[in-house]
Amino acid sequence: MNHGSKMFGFVKKCLIPRLENIGAQIVMCHSTAASQNPLSHKSYNKQAHITYGQPTATTHPHLLKPGELVPGIKLDEFIFRRTKLVEHILNDEYVGKTSENQHILIIPSSTKLYMSEKIPYVFRQNTDFLYFTGCQEPDSILVITANNSRFESTLFVQKKDPRSELWDGPRTGAEVAAEMFGVDKSYPITEFELFLNSLLHENRKNVIWYESDDIIHPDIHKKILQVVKSIGNRTFLSPKTIFHDIRLIKSETEIELMKKSCEIASAAIAKTIQASKCGISEHELFATVDYQCRINGAEFLAYPPVVAGGKNANIIHYITNNQIVHNGEMVLMDAGCEYHGYSSDITRTWPINGTFTPQQRILYEVVLDVQKMLIQQLEKFPTLDQIFHEMCRLLGIRLQEIGLIPKNFSADELLKAAFSYCPHHVSHYLGMDVHDSGKISRSIKTRPGMIITIEPGIYVSPKNPLAPAEFHNLGIRIEDDILIKEKTPVILTKSCPKEIDDIETLAKCNQ
Ligand SMILES: [Mn+2]
C-alpha cells in the first residue's frame, strides 16, 4: 500500500500556506470542473450507466430538476455553505486566541440502525452532514482542511460493492463522489484512518473540530479517537454551535422547501379533521395524517405525532395513540412532515363531534387569541424566551378573566399560575430538524430568515388546585410555523384552519 505517501502529498499540497497574499477572501482548492454540477454537465450523459447512491435529476426527474443535487437545492448552494462554514471557523473566538491556523473539521454521516437482526430502521441522515454535503449515504465522512483562507473538502464514502448493493441498493462510490458532491477529493471510507493519520502527522498542531460529546457514528468515533491517541493527547473543539448558527438562517431555496413541507402538513391535518367522527380511534387519525402527508409528497412524518383524545391531551408527549375518541371529547393532534429533509410542526385541537362545548370553546378562544397576539409581536423581533414570558403574561390575564386563576394574584403569582396551565415553552427554531439548531440559545433576538413555531396551550389537570371542575382534563394547543421577515412575519401553516367556525365546519363533515 502506498496510500500513506499519496496522502502526504495531498496534505502538503493543500495545507502548506501559499506565499502569495490571498487576503481575507476564502479560496477553495478544488478545480472549476468539480464546482460545476455534474448533473447539468454534458459529460454526465456519457456516464448514464453509473449508478448513484441517491436520487438524481436523471434517475428521479419527478423529484429533482436538472442541476439540483438534492430536491430543490443546487450544488453551488452546498459549496457556498462549506465556504461559509470555513469563514465561521476561522472567525471563531477560539481561533483568535491561538497561534494555530491550520484546521481540520470532521463531520460523520449517520450509520444504519437496526430494529432487530438485519431489519433496518428507516435511514435518516445526520442533519449537519446532509446540510454541508447533500450526501444521503450512510457511513460517509466530510473532512475539511482549512489554512488561513484556503480550504479543501474531502468526502469519504462507502466503496462500490456488488454484493452489498444487491441487498441495499446502489452506492455512489469514491470514483464519482467528488464530482457529484462538488468536493475536491473523494476516497473510500476504508482510507479515512490513514488520511487522518497522515494529516495529523503532517502538522501536529492542527486544531481539530469534531463533535466528540454527541457521538453520531460510533465506529467512526472510535477510529478518530484511536488515530488522535496515537499521536498524543489532543482535544477537540465542538463545531456544533457553528453549524447551527449557519443553519439558523434559511436560504431562499430552504424557505421554498419549508413552505411546501408546511403546506403538505396543513392540508393533511385539515383532511384528518374532516375525516374524524365520534368513536374513531387515535390510531386511525394518526394513519390518516400519515397517509395524507405521504401521498402529497412528504417522505414521512417529521416525528411520532401526538394524537390525544380527551384527557390524553394533558400528557404533553403522548404518542401511544391507541385510545378511542368519544363523543364530547376534543382531540389534540401535533403532527408535521418531512419534505426533502425539511420539517413542519403543527398542532390543532378540535371537537370530535364537530361542536365545541361551552367550556372547550372558552379555553379554545383564549389559546387562539394569545397565539395570534404572540404572532403579531414577532414584528418586533423578540427572543423566544421573551415570547414565552409574554405567553405566560397574556395567558395569566385571560385565565384570570375566565375564572381559572384567582383575581387577587400578584403579577408574579399570575405568571406562575399561567405556567401551571402551560408547562412547556412556546417556541423553538424549526428547519431540517423539528427542534432545529438546538445549540442556539432562545435568548437571542429573532431575525429575518429564521423559522420558528408559536405554540401556546392550556392543559387543565385535575391535580391543579386552581382549576374549576368543569374544565378538568381539557387540553388545547394551537401551533403554527412562522417565517420571520423584515416586516410582517409569514405564517407558513396558514392554510391549516384554526378559527372556531372553520374547525367546526370541517369536523362536522363526517359525522
Ligand atoms: Mn413544536
From TrEMBL:
Top-level lineage group: Eukaryota
CDD domains: Prolidase (cd01087)
Segments forming domain Aminopeptidase P N-terminal: 73-213
Coiled coil: none
BP GO annotations: proteolysis
GO MF term list: manganese ion binding; metalloaminopeptidase activity
Cofactor(s) the record lists: Mn(2+)
GO cellular component terms listed in the entry, alphabetical order: mitochondrion
Keywords tagged on the record: Hydrolase, Manganese, Metal-binding
Family: Belongs to the peptidase M24B family.
Protein name: Aminopeptidase P N-terminal domain-containing protein
Species whose genome carries this gene: Microctonus hyperodae
